[in-house]
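User: Design a sequence. Structure:
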C-alpha cells in the first residue's frame, strides 16, 4: 500500500469516525430535546391540574357563599329587632366575601386566558418556523386553538355575570371548553415539538 493509499484510508477512517461522532451528538441532542419536552409537558400538566383545582375551589366557595346568603335572607324575613339586624349585617358580610371571591374567580379565568394567549403565540411562532410541508397543518391547528380560546373567552364572560344557579352551568361550560382546549393544545404541542 502506497503512502497515498494509506493516507486516503486514514482519511476515510477519520471521516467515518466524524460521522459516528456527529450521529452520536445528534442522538444525544435529540435525547436531551426529548427530555426537555417531557419536562415541559409535565410542568404544563401540573399547572393545568392546579389551575383546575383552583377553579373548582373558587367555584365551591362561591356556591357555599351563595347558599349561605340565601339561607340568611330567608331567616331574616322571620326575624325582628336585634336578631334581624345581626342577620342583615351577616348577609352584608357574606355579600362582601361573595364579591371578593367572585373577583378572584374572574381574575383566575383572566389569568388562564392570558396563559393560553402566551402558549398560542409560542405555537404560532413554531408553526411559522416549521418545514414548509408541515406549516399549513401547524397553522390550521393554531387557528383551531384560537377559535377554542375565543369560545373560552365567551364562557368566561358568562362566568363573570353568573350568579346562583346560572353559576354552575357557566362554570361547567367553562370547564368543558377548557378541557377541550387543553386536550387540543397538548396534541398540538406534541405535533410541533
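Assistant: Done.
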Amino acid at each position: 500500500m502506497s503512502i497515498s493509499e494509506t493516507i486516503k484510508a486514514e482519511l476515510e477512517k477519520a471521516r467515518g469516525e466524524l460521522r459516528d461522532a456527529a450521529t452520536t451528538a445528534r442522538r444525544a441532542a435529540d435525547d436531551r430535546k426529548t427530555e426537555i419536552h417531557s419536562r415541559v409537558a409535565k410542568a404544563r400538566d401540573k399547572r393545568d391540574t392546579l389551575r383546575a383545582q383552583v377553579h373548582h375551589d373558587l367555584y365551591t366557595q362561591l356556591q357555599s357563599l351563595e347558599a349561605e346568603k340565601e339561607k340568611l335572607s330567608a331567616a331574616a324575613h322571620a326575624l325582628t329587632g336585634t336578631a334581624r339586624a345581626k342577620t342583615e349585617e351577616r348577609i352584608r358580610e357574606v355579600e362582601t366575601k361573595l364579591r371578593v371571591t367572585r373577583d378572584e374567580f374572574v381574575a383566575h379565568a383572566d389569568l388562564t386566558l392570558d396563559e393560553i394567549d402566551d402558549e398560542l403565540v409560542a405555537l404560532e411562532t413554531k408553526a411559522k418556523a416549521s418545514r414548509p410541508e408541515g406549516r399549513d397543518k401547524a397553522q390550521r391547528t393554531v387557528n383551531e386553538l384560537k377559535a377554542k380560546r375565543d369560545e373560552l373567552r365567551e364562557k368566561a364572560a358568562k362566568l363573570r355575570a353568573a350568579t346562583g344557579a346560572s353559576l354552575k352551568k357557566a362554570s361547567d361550560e367553562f370547564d368543558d371548553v377548557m378541557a377541550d382546549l387543553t386536550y387540543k393544545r397538548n396534541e398540538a404541542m406534541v405535533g410541533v415539538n
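The radius of gyration is 29 Å. The chain has one domain: 3-192.
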